[in-house]
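Model: Ready when you are.
Researcher: Fold this.
Model:
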Amino acid sequence: MFSCTRRTFLKTSALTGASLLLPGLLLGGCAATRPAIRQSFPDLQSWPLERKIAQMLLLGFPGETLEPDSPIDRAIRRYGVGGVVLFDNNIDLGVTGRNITSPSQLKQLTTSLQQSSEVPLLIAVDQEGGVVARLKDRYGFPATVSAKYLGQQNRLELTRSSSDSLAATLEEYGFNLNLAPVVDLATNPDNPVIAFKERSFSADPALVTAHAAEFIKGHHRHQILTCLKHFPGHGSSREDSHLGLVDVTRYWHENELQPYRDLISQGLCDMVMTAHTFNTAIDPVYPATLSKATIDGILRKQLGFDGVVVSDDLYMGAIVQHYSYETAVEKAINAGVDLLVVANDKLYSPDIMPRTIELLLKMVEQGRIPRERIDQACNRIIALKKRTLKHGDAA
């Protein structure tokens, strides 16, 4: 049975136990080159708390290659991070030095990321199609169409073929999680972050459900997980939560829950992403990502979803302008979020992995987060990986 002190874990970061260490993995506390391995799922009962916490992060990072002993290399090899999310450059948002520049570069990066992880790694991307596509045709990837276009055409066979093509590209380049489809309703045609960017299939919840179902099924045929977003609905908003607090109290309608209800009942919901929207009719204190009333009350109890809940990026303006990182992490996990997204782009924190582990260890020790909540989140994440990801496919 593996055991270690917090200091030992954070210094040497044995991954899951002495029996699982590979020769040459840790040399004097530094990451070393190792051969490709067949990934596996060790018994969670043997994992220390720190290792379970590490599975609860989906991290962004700078760079087109995986550099030895870089922060993301240490996050994978030493701490056992649950997953990574890749981005391309976005000059408009001041995001540079990111991860996607060409097909050959991307394939090499995702392969090296997966080979560095003892447990299958979630490698995620926002490839919705149309405006929101990280694998752009200008980099040499196939062109895509937007959800709005597919909804306007309203031909399910077109959505089916479009999804198959998009998912095949993701599979080819090493992804296993697409942070899509958007199931927000386009109820506000002037919405700056949903309707304006053509991210919604329609204002009609039945049409959104039908096309989202085809999108998801196409991804599943290529072993790609999907993620419904942005719960409990961002389509009626007047502002962009990337930039600041978004209050939808006056505009949100309960029919925005219908696509979630339908897709959950059809068994087509792998994961749900929360919105950083504020609705006093649901929770008078916290936005959805930090709201137990929203996640545990509506998503879990009312809609019956018991799978992985993932936050939207905790570095978005709606969160960082109003909450410290520590508060956001504590409230999100207690609300029911299992997987925390830290895009780490405009506000890059190279120490985010050990810092988050330290924060959560302290919160568990102080009784601010029940240990059972960590176990529950980790179990959900590993169950999703076991059900969907192919063992050793990148080895």
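Researcher: Now this one.
Model:
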Amino acid sequence: MTTTRSTTQSTTQHATIHDTPPAARLVLGAMMFGTAVDETTAFDLLDRFVDAGGCWIDTADCYSFWASESGYGGQSEEVLGRWLAARPGVRDRVLLSTKFGAEPRDAADWPASRTGLSATAVREQLTRSLRRLGTDHVDLAWAHMEDRSVPVEETADACAALVSDGVVARIGTSNHPAWRVERARRHAVGQGEEPFSVVQHAYSYLQPRPGTLTGNHRFGWLDDELVDLAAVEHLDVWAYTPLLSGAYDNPAKPIPEVFDHPGTTRRLAVLDDVAAELDASRGQVVLAWLAARGIHPMLGGSKPTQLTTAVAALTLPLTETQVTRLSEVDVTPPTS
């Protein structure tokens, strides 16, 4: 494989995304494959996803260390590698995305012992990922969690070198603050190197209270600054946990406490109105709303029905007026 071929493949995918099947706008998250999701179920989900027209599959070298007996990751990539080996020709139909930087060096001391994002670590981790996946390249590689022990310029250079070497088509950042993303991009552009062109963060229709954490990443939520940066610099945006782990539609899963504020009540009211108009579930409207805004929703489900429902969501006839109604909900407190 050459750098030219991989970059062309990625660019073509990006340029024609709205002409492809609805599933092409989804990303299938493989986080729990090989741990909470057994291999048979994982193979079934992957087959169904590809048959529906899906192409992007996302994993990471650290998936899922917290659910594994060893305390280390790699299980997800290994399952994907076995699936690819068992399906001759399917590698040419899918786009693989993997991340590095968050795998523990010491399972008893995470996150302090993360592998991190030094030039040496980036190269070593990607090499291991390729071996587990059984491929000579991935279509997108991510700096998984920011590493402030390393200059972001070093990480940018190391990731750009992966593109130059033809083992990666595009590079992105996940769970990084906007200023570090922009600093890395400016450095790469100044050096004539491939810059980060994609960001991946948690994001959904409901918004958390300012100053609260939605997970174990300090910069895990896609904030307004990153949204603005992505719009101005034409970065692709991927959103993980878009359905709040099922809380929109499953009464047994309450909406997380960080979303408990008056703005949520107002947004849910509009979401319910649009869902009724479309005869769809809340979660389906959320996925359609994200896709309408050019954001790739990432589906981490473990059941075929969840995949079917998500694919159907991207066929909803969501109008521009409905998108505007959903996006411009007045969440300011009423004045007395």
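Researcher: Key takeaway?
Model: The longest helix spans residues 262-278.
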